[in-house]
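General statements about sequence and structure are easier to judge against a single worked case. No coordinates are needed to read the tokens, only the vocabulary itself. The sequence in question and its structure tokens are set out directly beneath this paragraph.
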Amino acid sequence: MAITFDKKLERLEEIVKILESGDVNLAEVNKLFSEGVDLAKSCFSELNDSKGKITILQQEIGELVEKPFVE
């Protein structure tokens, strides 16, 4: 079963907290950092895919107006 986007973000936040704590050895830092990079890439890819799908849907209904994403 694939991990959901939300679960990936939760794990990424958990990794950041662990790394920021400084309570892990170098080997664990390398492992966590690598996992974090993989999660970040996966999340970024999902966001790009979603943006493309939204653009296609907007084009289909004739309302294509691209606006910057604001959090």
